[in-house]
Amino acid sequence: MKFTFRKKDKLKSQKLIERLFLEGKSVSAYPLRLVYLQTNHEDNSVIKAGVSVSKRNFKSAVDRNRIKRLLRETYRLQKHQYFNNITTSYALMILYIGKEEISFEEIGLKMNQLFKKFIDANPKS
Protein backbone atom coordinates (compact mmCIF):
# COMPACT_ATOMS: atom_id res chain seq x y z
CA MET A 1 0.00 0.00 0.00
CA LYS A 2 1.40 3.37 -0.98
CA PHE A 3 1.39 6.67 0.89
CA THR A 4 -1.57 7.92 -1.16
CA PHE A 5 -5.19 8.78 -0.50
CA ARG A 6 -6.76 8.40 -3.93
CA LYS A 7 -10.31 9.18 -4.95
CA LYS A 8 -11.29 5.48 -4.93
CA ASP A 9 -10.11 5.24 -1.29
CA LYS A 10 -12.42 8.04 -0.13
CA LEU A 11 -15.76 7.32 1.46
CA LYS A 12 -18.30 9.30 -0.59
CA SER A 13 -21.45 7.18 -0.87
CA GLN A 14 -24.27 8.78 1.14
CA LYS A 15 -26.03 5.41 1.49
CA LEU A 16 -22.87 3.77 2.82
CA ILE A 17 -22.24 6.64 5.25
CA GLU A 18 -25.80 6.37 6.60
CA ARG A 19 -25.42 2.60 6.95
CA LEU A 20 -22.07 3.11 8.65
CA PHE A 21 -23.60 5.28 11.38
CA LEU A 22 -26.65 3.03 11.82
CA GLU A 23 -24.95 -0.38 11.86
CA GLY A 24 -21.28 0.40 12.45
CA LYS A 25 -19.13 -0.21 15.51
CA SER A 26 -16.70 2.28 16.98
CA VAL A 27 -13.47 2.65 18.92
CA SER A 28 -12.15 5.84 20.51
CA ALA A 29 -8.87 7.45 21.45
CA TYR A 30 -9.85 10.93 22.59
CA PRO A 31 -10.15 13.29 20.70
CA LEU A 32 -10.64 10.82 17.82
CA ARG A 33 -13.37 8.27 17.23
CA LEU A 34 -13.37 5.65 14.48
CA VAL A 35 -16.70 4.27 13.23
CA TYR A 36 -16.26 1.19 11.03
CA LEU A 37 -18.39 -1.28 9.14
CA GLN A 38 -17.40 -4.42 7.31
CA THR A 39 -18.71 -4.17 3.76
CA ASN A 40 -18.03 -5.06 0.14
CA HIS A 41 -17.04 -2.24 -2.19
CA GLU A 42 -18.01 -2.29 -5.86
CA ASP A 43 -14.55 -1.16 -6.99
CA ASN A 44 -12.78 -3.90 -4.96
CA SER A 45 -10.94 -1.43 -2.73
CA VAL A 46 -10.15 -2.74 0.73
CA ILE A 47 -10.60 0.43 2.80
CA LYS A 48 -12.75 3.48 2.15
CA ALA A 49 -12.23 6.27 4.67
CA GLY A 50 -13.68 9.67 5.43
CA VAL A 51 -13.05 12.35 8.04
CA SER A 52 -15.44 14.66 9.86
CA VAL A 53 -15.23 17.56 12.31
CA SER A 54 -18.29 18.82 14.18
CA LYS A 55 -19.65 22.22 13.26
CA ARG A 56 -20.99 22.46 16.80
CA ASN A 57 -17.46 22.41 18.27
CA PHE A 58 -15.76 24.49 15.55
CA LYS A 59 -17.94 27.26 14.20
CA SER A 60 -15.29 28.58 11.82
CA ALA A 61 -14.94 26.65 8.55
CA VAL A 62 -11.25 27.54 8.49
CA ASP A 63 -10.68 25.68 11.76
CA ARG A 64 -12.76 22.67 10.65
CA ASN A 65 -10.97 22.41 7.33
CA ARG A 66 -7.54 22.64 8.98
CA ILE A 67 -8.35 19.75 11.33
CA LYS A 68 -9.77 17.70 8.44
CA ARG A 69 -6.56 18.29 6.45
CA LEU A 70 -4.49 17.14 9.42
CA LEU A 71 -6.67 14.02 9.87
CA ARG A 72 -6.41 13.08 6.18
CA GLU A 73 -2.65 13.59 6.14
CA THR A 74 -2.14 11.53 9.30
CA TYR A 75 -4.34 8.77 7.89
CA ARG A 76 -2.43 8.83 4.60
CA LEU A 77 0.92 8.47 6.36
CA GLN A 78 -0.14 5.72 8.78
CA LYS A 79 -2.56 3.53 6.83
CA HIS A 80 0.15 1.33 5.33
CA GLN A 81 1.27 0.18 8.81
CA TYR A 82 -2.16 -1.17 9.73
CA PHE A 83 -4.06 -1.93 6.54
CA ASN A 84 -1.31 -3.36 4.31
CA ASN A 85 -2.13 -7.03 4.96
CA ILE A 86 -5.85 -6.65 5.61
CA THR A 87 -8.14 -8.89 3.55
CA THR A 88 -11.60 -7.80 4.72
CA SER A 89 -13.20 -4.68 3.23
CA TYR A 90 -14.17 -1.88 5.61
CA ALA A 91 -15.76 1.54 5.47
CA LEU A 92 -14.19 3.91 8.02
CA MET A 93 -15.16 7.33 9.30
CA ILE A 94 -12.68 9.20 11.49
CA LEU A 95 -14.42 11.77 13.68
CA TYR A 96 -12.74 14.56 15.61
CA ILE A 97 -14.77 14.86 18.82
CA GLY A 98 -12.53 17.27 20.76
CA LYS A 99 -13.43 20.87 21.48
CA GLU A 100 -9.97 22.43 21.09
CA GLU A 101 -7.45 22.41 18.25
CA ILE A 102 -4.62 19.91 18.40
CA SER A 103 -1.16 19.68 16.85
CA PHE A 104 -0.18 17.37 14.00
CA GLU A 105 2.08 15.30 16.28
CA GLU A 106 -0.68 14.73 18.83
CA ILE A 107 -3.11 13.70 16.08
CA GLY A 108 -0.49 11.24 14.84
CA LEU A 109 -0.16 9.64 18.28
CA LYS A 110 -3.91 9.43 18.77
CA MET A 111 -4.45 8.02 15.26
CA ASN A 112 -1.85 5.36 16.06
CA GLN A 113 -3.73 4.39 19.24
CA LEU A 114 -7.02 4.40 17.35
CA PHE A 115 -5.78 2.04 14.63
CA LYS A 116 -4.26 -0.31 17.25
CA LYS A 117 -7.65 -0.50 18.99
CA PHE A 118 -9.33 -1.15 15.63
CA ILE A 119 -6.91 -4.00 14.79
CA ASP A 120 -7.33 -5.50 18.30
CA ALA A 121 -11.12 -5.35 17.96
CA ASN A 122 -10.96 -7.11 14.55
CA PRO A 123 -8.23 -9.78 14.79
CA LYS A 124 -9.58 -11.86 11.89
CA SER A 125 -9.14 -9.12 9.28
From TrEMBL:
It catalyses: Endonucleolytic cleavage of RNA, removing 5'-extranucleotides from tRNA precursor. Its EC number is 3.1.26.5. It comes from the Bacteria. Signal peptide: none annotated. SUPFAM superfamilies: Ribosomal protein S5 domain 2-like. Gene3D superfamilies: 3.30.230.10. InterPro entries: Ribosomal_Su5_D2-typ_SF (IPR020568), Ribsml_uS5_D2-typ_fold_subgr (IPR014721), RNase_P (IPR000100), RNase_P_CS (IPR020539). The keyword Disulfide bond does not apply. One of its GO terms (molecular function) is ribonuclease P activity. Keywords: Endonuclease, Hydrolase, Nuclease, RNA-binding, tRNA processing. RNaseP catalyzes the removal of the 5'-leader sequence from pre-tRNA to produce the mature 5'-terminus. It can also cleave other RNA substrates such as 4.5S RNA. The protein component plays an auxiliary but essential role in vivo by binding to the 5'-leader sequence and broadening the substrate specificity of the ribozyme. NCBIfam families: rnpA (TIGR00188). Belongs to the RnpA family. Consists of a catalytic RNA component (M1 or rnpB) and a protein subunit. This is Ribonuclease P protein component.
